[in-house]
Specification:
CATH class of the largest domain: Alpha Beta
Largest sheet: 7 strands, mixed
Radius of gyration: 22 Å
Strand content: 15-25%
Shape: globular
CATH superfamily of the largest domain: ATPase, nucleotide binding domain
CATH architecture of the largest domain: 2-Layer Sandwich
Number of helices: 18
Helix content: 25-40%
CATH topology of the largest domain: Nucleotidyltransferase, domain 5
Oligomer: single chain
Length: about 475
């Protein structure tokens, strides 16, 4: 049997064909441009996601027909928090405002005033990346988009709708709307009223591994699949990434070092910590919760410096490692929060700081400061989660940032713990999505399927020679004032 995992990312879409043992046999991908109409805004046309997903499946059907002929299930990993407002004919009424958009900062304050305990009931304190503040902003600025909307859905749900014709969402993605009571897993009427929305314009709620329909007959013919292909509900991207490395049991965690950085830790209890800007929600694995410490700009910070210096990110990482070998005591200290800060300070308005930079510092040394600053922000998130009773016993790092073992070593040293680099960590979200499809097809094996850990390609240990110095520099990093 073959299963397809669809990873709907902010910057690109990837589809992987995976066998029952979890091995990726083929994949296809497409870039997904982001529209930035003005500073602080970030949005996409939902129709773009479906067009690009279809292109990926078309390519797989053309190049790997023998695999598509054995397809049994499909599921999804999707970037979260973006509102997808659809009319009665399932056409979007407005672009999707993405997770890293900052236009609804004022509405976050309004939402908190309306529901002071909202952070303890939903996934955390109001943030402009979350869905409810965006609804309030749209009501003020594009009310006709709300008036024409028949339903509110999430990004991956829109792609699944195109595949099945069925409207639905699931708990992990719904948690980012701020309309869901995360402890009970139900829509909350008080939260709906505060956001100006109504229950009649919300989709049914599923669990991530639940069947959510069948692949449409015309798509089965187009892609050469069997006549019946089950489509599972899927999950948000961090949940799928965690499942891709077996983080389905309490104490296991996945550290995603991508555009953003997220430490996703599995818990068997609901331990909300909105005072530390930790996101706590139902996990895609049944009967568990996921605690997420979020760094808004991880590889994005290095990409930003790469653009400024006309030097590739990989080259900058290599230069930074060389610079660090000469000593880091006198290098600048950074807080590379170019898109604000979430965990633990909840300051979406925060700007970046590089302290101690002089004309004598090279781009290699600035690159080190930026990479170290990201690692320190991840350390701050880790400490906030541990202080909130979240168990973190085993960490596996995934995402593009893991290409720099040096960067992961900085993180391991600051966290004083070993970090595992799993094989195929770069496609963990696809693998997690495929696992949800497997579990939907074989529900009696759900726990074994979701908790299976992949082979490791490396174990990164803390650097004892750097520990004391990094601890001192971390204290300086945390003392940097906001502006």
């Amino acid at each position: 049997m073959i299963f397809a995992g669809v990873d709907l990312g902010t910057s690109g879409i990837k589809v992987a064909l995976v066998d029952e043992d979890g091995a990726c046999l083929a994949s296809a991908s497409q870039r997904s441009p982001v529209d930035i109409p003005q500073q602080g805004w970030s949005q996409q046309d939902p129709e773009q996601w479906w067009r690009l997903t279809a292109v990926c499946f078309d390519a797989l059907a053309s190049e790997h027909a023998h695999l598509m002929a054995r397809l049994k299930g499909v599921s999804f990993s999707g970037h979260m928090l973006g509102q997808v407002l659809l009319d009665r004919d399932n056409h979007p009424t407005t672009p999707c405002i993405l997770w890293n958009d900052q236009r609804s900062i004022i509405e976050c304050t309004e939402l908190l005033e309306r529901v002071p305990d909202i952070g303890w009931r939903t996934n955390g304190q109001p943030d402009p990346g979350l869905t409810a503040p965006k609804l309030l902003w749209l009501a003020k600025n594009i009310p006709e988009a709300l008036d024409r909307a028949d339903i509110l859905m999430l990004p991956k749900d829109f792609v699944r709708l195109h595949m099945t014709g069925e409207r639905a969402t699931e708990l992990s993605d719904a948690s980012g709307t701020m309309l869901l009571d995360c402890k009970t897993g139900t829509w909350d009427d008080e939260l709906l009223a505060a956001a100006g929305w109504d229950r009649g314009r919300l989709p049914k709620l599923l669990v991530s591994c639940d069947p959510a329909g069948q692949l449409r007959a015309d798509l089965c013919r187009r892609w050469g699949t069997p006549d019946t292909v089950l489509v599972a509900a899927g999950s948000g991207d961090n949940y799928a990434g965690a499942l891709g490395v077996g983080a389905a049991l309490p104490g296991r965690a996945a550290l995603s070092v991508g555009t953003s950085g997220v430490l996703s830790a599995v818990d068997d209890q609901f331990h909300p910590a909105p005072d530390k800007a930790i996101l706590t929600t139902p996990h895609a694995a049944p009967n568990t919760f996921l605690s997420m410490g979020v760094v808004m700009s991880a590889t994005q910070s290095l990409d930003w410096l790469a653009q400024l210096t006309s030097t590739g990110p990989a080259d900058l990482a290599s230069l930074a490692e060389t610079a660090a070998a000469k000593g880091v005591a006198d290098l600048p200290i950074s807080r590379p929060s170019i898109t604000g800060i979430r965990t633990p300070d909840n300051r979406p308005d925060a700007t970046a700081i590089i302290l101690g930079m002089t004309a004598g510092h090279s781009k290699a040394e600035i690159a080190y400061a930026v990479m170290e600053g990201v690692a320190m922000q991840i350390c701050a998130a880790y400490q906030a989660q541990r202080s909130s009773s979240v168990p973190i016993d085993d960490i596996q790092a995934i995402g593009g940032g893991t290409r720099s073992a040096f960067w992961i070593e900085l993180m391991a040293t600051l966290l004083s713990t070993e970090i595992t680099l799993p094989a195929h960590g770069d496609i963990s979200a696809c693998l997690g999505a495929a696992r949800m499809a497997m579990a939907a097809v074989m529900p009696s094996n759900t726990e074994e399927i979701l908790s299976r850990q992949p082979k490791s390609k490396a174990m990164v240990a803390p650097n004892p020679d750097l520990h004391q110095l990094l601890s001192e520099r971390y204290a300086r990093h945390r003392s940097l004032s906001f502006c």
